[in-house]
Amino acid sequence: MTNFDSREAMFSYQLIMRRMMQVASSWSDGRPDGVDMSMGIPVHRSILGSALVALVAPLAFAGIAHAAPVSAGDVESLPWHSQISPSPRQLVGASDGYLVYVTPTTSAAEGYSHLTVARAADGSIAWDAFTADPDSRALSLVGGYLTEKIGDSTYWPTSVRFYDVETHQLAGEIAVPTGDTLVAVGPGWLLTTHPNASPATAVYAVLRRLDGSSSTMTNATVLSSIPSYAGTDGTSAWFYDQVGAFYQVDLASGTATVVPKPVGLSTWDTVVVGQKAYYDIRDDGSSSPTDNGSTYTITAIDRTTADATTTTLSPGLAGGYPPVFMARGDGLAIYHQQVSGDDGTLWNVDLAGGQLGAVVDQHLSDARVMGVGKVATVTSTQLPAYVSTDDGSGPTRVVDLPLSNLGASGVALDGTMRVTWDPTEGSTIDPNAANPSWADTTLDPHERITTSGGVTLVNDLNSNYDSTTSWHLFWSGGSRDVTATNAVLGHGGELISVATDSGTSVQRVHSGEVVASFGQIGAGVDGSWVWTQSGGALHGVDVDHPDTAAVTVPIASPNPTQTSVVDVRGRWVLLRSIDGYEVVDTLGVVPPYALAGLNPSFAPSAPQLGNGFVVWGRWVYTAGNGSPSGTAVTVADLSLSHNTRDLVDPDSGKAPTSYTVDEAGSPALAFVGADYQPKVLHLPWLTTAPSVRDAAPTLTGTQLPPTVVGPRGGTQHFGWTFAAGSNANFITSYIVRSEVRQYPASFGSWSTTSSPSQAALDATPAPNQQICAQAMAVDAEANSSAWSRLACTRVDAAAPKLGSTSGSARFAIQDARGGVTFSYRATDDTAVASYDVEGRYAAPGHGFGSWTLLNSATTATSIHRTASPGSEWCFRFRARDVWGNVSTWSGMRCNSLALDDSRFSRSSHTARVRSAVAIAGAYTQLETLDSWAKTPWFPKGRVLAVWLIVKPRGGAVDVYWGGRYVQTISTASKTTHRILLILNTTGSGAVRFVQLGSGPVGVDAVTVER
Prior knowledge:
This protein is an all-beta fold. It is 3% helix and 48% strand.
């Protein structure tokens, strides 16, 4: 099986949901109440076949990140090939009395390594059980303590914990105050800087001890918030800034003493504390990444006399890493490490001669300062590697470092497993043998190894492996090279698919004969069959048997013409599109199976087809984090149920980074565990896919909620029952989809759930919310029923809508029944059940009373009330529906009744004239200048309404209200008739009409709006 390029990638689960939406929208144009969404299209003949990927996938993959891991009993761990020395940086810390190094393990509980602390005096083990990752936990060795920085491990941790390496107990913890910067961690103490109040740009040093005490060194004020730490000898510690101050701290008293700066030294550069002298080392910066050709100016200051001497040193070191100066004995040494990792050298520095002195030790992979004048080195050019200590008298071998197992870097499986080992070995093993053992080969490690049918394909890492052009084919008795941008060995080892910039060809492995060419498209090869995609369909041809009919299979993906064939095995084709990967059954029985979590351009490893199963890698994301938090590898059989397991190495609890299916056709995978041990996963749980499809399930019954419920409706139950298409089949899952809207707005997107046991939905609609749902059933052969008819339920929590009101006019005359009428109406989306009507009344000459309930819970839509002339009625109403939802009160509608002139007082020269146009059949006529008519008392009002009789030669009249002039009105008109004038004025008291001139004036009635 081909190990496809690891830069192949995964599409997200959103693809499945997007596909579901595309298919769902194709089944119905709308979702109103009562619309029939059912269809009778056979699954394998419609788009439902591809859509079922989306609909069944939530059942199979809804918790894919939580899929059960493979059984540990199904994993066969093959023996280790050999052992090697550990990596160069196996020594992770050194102090005056102890050494700490990493011991490799294969235990997931110990994170594949734990720290071992050895006594520097004799190499005996002080502590061998502190299991941790030294980088992630920010662990350091200081004196007799392992320290752990909590929080930011660089400059701003919140605290530092101290573990006693002899007792293995937490000795205590020192907090780092907010705002402080950590300068150094010593045995039982911290040195921090603290911001100064004035000037604000300065900081001062603080010594914080494990017993809780602290000493503030205000005289040690520096201008850099992160000064450099120069070391400690157990009684003193030194630090300096690069502006000009160098301090010695007495650890007992917590006082800081300024170390005098020699004449001619403007600032301190890099300071090394020796037993007899301080060394200021200044790099002239002339080195390059390839030659390390710096010249150093070294100033040695005698710690007793303060005498200073300056030397120029040009060590002439070539390549490797920048050299490191360290005190050794009572002198100075320099360590230079080559990139190879095991070719470092430690020299003495001849300060008098300004040159490198004698070689102290060589062929080193590491060197570290243990204390003032003491050095620890690691020699790893032999097995086992070992640590030496040196106080100036020469290296003394103290402790041997544990060996590591040689790790596998790549695997291929074709009955026999082929493994490449890091760094330069290759070997094969038969995992099915009674006692599997390794046989070495001459094959060097390659990025990619493929074996099938006794043929091996590798690519050439001597070229740029990101664009490999050189490929090599090997078989018993022969070999040949292939030039291609990509090459895929076909299953069975007969054919190879070769891609170049000009197109894709399929060649015979042994001869190189081209049997098919396809332009730029990809091809999948299985035995003598070649499969490609063109025109939105799969095309299969048997190149060894031209008489065999070619096979064409339509692709039901959303974008069939934008797919390409990745791999083929038997009836299964692995397709890749811009959206992701899916496995297609060329028999059309098993619906297309989308590989969840894959993005074609971003994946930790690519999918592979096995014999009846598929395996793929994907990124794992933590909620709320946009970056991957790890990887997972999923194995699923290609049966209808798609039994799924996560490939987890039982020894590590982690997913492998390299794996391959067995090209010999067994249900097995080879993989490299997280501990780099080669292993085989057997798959006894695989099940076989059927080759013939049965009848689809049908809907047999429903239990559905009412279409509309009241605001106290609570939880509503939707239920459907289905029957399998035949007695030999059974239903395996049910799919329910629902949609929600705030009635009557539009629906949102579908929400889809799956259940293996029932088609049901319990939902509690919110007020004025409508929920619609439907279901389908899927049987063991992946046949799906038609969707059930869409069922909806809605909570009616909306009050009726109030309509307009009608009835007597605003300024009215008593009707035939001696009063006024108020009419009203409301509407509701279910039904209006009843009305409440309130009114308030103002008698003639009086103001309004309070609102009074006139009708309660009535079905009547009008009301009549008796009203005296000069009085006023106001009405309002509210409505309730059948669920008890009650509207607010309507606005009020008021009727002010006319006070007829028969109630007026009059002066002389007035008369009552009978007339059909008058309100009561007669009106008062003012006949001479200054004649008048006056009403009874009116309460305070905001509108004055007067009824006058106008006629030819009618005169003018002044209107007064409460003695205040309001307006002059002319009553002249071509015809005789009654008019109503609304005077927008306020007032109270009697209304007086006074004639002007000689023309007569007809006054009929008056009222006010209170």
